[in-house]
Design a protein that fits this description.
Elements: H1 2-15, H2 53-64, E1 75-76, E2 79-80, H3 82-91, H4 101-104, E3 109-111, E4 121-124, E5 134-141, E6 147-153, E7 157-162, H5 166-171, E8 172-177
Antiparallel strand pairs: 1-2, 3-8, 4-5, 4-8, 5-6, 6-7
Helix pairs in contact: 2-3
Amino acid sequence: MKNSVLVILFSIFLVSCGASKPTKRYSYKKPISTNKSSNLKKLSSTYSGNVSGTRASILDNAENYLGTPYKYAGNTKAGFDCSGLVCKVFDENRIQMPRRSSDQAKQGKSINVSEAKPGDLLFFATAGGSSVTHVGIVHDIMNSGEVTFIHASTSKGVIISSLNESYWNKAFLFARSVL
């Protein structure tokens, strides 16, 4: 009995943000290279670097939660899971979002990651396959094309990560804009 409970708890921890329906996987993968002579294509972003209005407010609100611990099904300053963070930040900006990351993945409009701007959403399949299990809020697009995002990590709480990181690059599915 004790082992069964441990297995269930461990399974919940691994999946973290859960999903039930598969989504289409996009072919974009940001090249990861530290070799300056690499022939890999750079991401050409349409982002101008200007953030104002609701986008700026969403980023400010999300940044206020940096360092908040991870908590399964959490959506308060006491702890967040990934979709709870998105719900809270968007709610603070009077934008209602579904609670689950798989449902959030159906909101707004589909965009190519090269069209992403701060405040847009990135979706991931962290459990493998093509089902949405994680969501993050685009934080910045660097001149190099690197995309950073704020999200609730199961191991580190609310942090900023990069699509250049191998784990996130492999798990990335697609981007959507609800703004």
